[in-house]
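How a chain folds remains the central question behind the approach discussed here. In the encoding step, the backbone of a single protein was reduced to a row of integers, each denoting a local shape. We regard such an encoding as a compact summary of how the chain folds. The sequence in question and its structure tokens are set out directly beneath this paragraph:

___
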Amino acid sequence: MADPTWIPARPHDRRADDERGASAVEYGLLIAGIAALIVVVVFAFGGSLKGIFTSTCSKVTASATVKSCS
């Protein structure tokens, strides 16, 4: 049977080694970084991408029976 008078010398050390929440924080930071990168890419290349999609839409509309791409 365990000795009831035994008191751990440093009970807070066990909590300091607990890293269960650290991975959730790391995943959150990773997702935030990816979202920020997507925003930067959209703002940087948004105009040229719109031109590419408009050109593609015009070509598809010209060769199909669809009246518009929207």
Q: What stands out?
A: The mean pLDDT is 79. Residues 28-64 form one domain.
